[in-house]
Amino acid sequence: MIRVVGGLFAACILTLSGTAAQAADTTLRISLQLPLKSHLGQNLELFKNEVESTSQGAIAVEIYDSAQLYKDKEVPAAVGSGAIEMGVASLTRYVGDIPAVDIFYMPFLLNSEEKVRAAVAPDSPIRGPLDEAIKETGSTVLWWQAYGGAIMLSKDEPIRTPADLEGKKVRVFGKTLGDFVTAAGGAPTLISGSEQYLAYQRGTVDVGMTGVSGVKSRKLWEVMDVISQTNHADIEFIVVVNTKFWESLPNEHRELIQAAARKAEMDVRDRMAAIEAEATAEAKANGMSVHTPTPEEVEAWKAVAQPVYDNYLESAGDLGAQIMEAARSL
Fold it and tell me: Which residue range is the domain that position 247 belongs to?
């Protein structure tokens, strides 16, 4: 039986792919907003190959990249409702239900690889409670995908200090990042990752915000000139599965999938620094210049960030306060 999801186009895609997967006992369809050539797409390919190999074809994995079925903001509801088995979403897409998830977007809080690794460890006092809270939305977290540090994009001149954002429209992908832009004097505009290329091309916003790997996978050098390596937040994506579907699977299938998920998570985490370095080099090769903030410039950014912390603690409740304390202790 084919579910109708994401309109007629999505239904046609699922019908065709469903025919190809009929030989498998279980089919996992995964929605991804990024291109398959992105490092998150390649990470899903690793997962797919591992699952299909270890299950000897009993489990089939179908990846629908480039927002064919759902935009990033639609994934939590689509997976939580069971419209699709699995999906990849930016962690901040859960902020409406769980404001505490934006701990990773607090300016300069998790500002080293060591701190990030400690925070995203499966049983850490930061990730553990967040994974549990996400279960309340109807989805179970299978693994976290590293996306690197947040950067800013501009034309002609770098974004050096908050003064360079004053009065400018800035693409953001989460509430807390929007609060940060507002605190710096800019005007945040929430734009999905799959739509940012056109937003820069059309001048919908003046300044971009993403991870440097996104510059490479989306060829953003065609519409922006300068990367400012502010690294003001840690960008995390999560791969979720519908909980009812997950619990209906045979134990042996769940074990195979969990093992593949662990392998995929460690692979992308261990390669993140190299992925960012390669993406930066390719951006330079395609004409972009890269600005690394001075210590004084970083301090200027930190100086405007206090309202962001205040807003987080006010909106994130007891869970947010608990996680903030754990993050500050790293």
Answer: 7-328
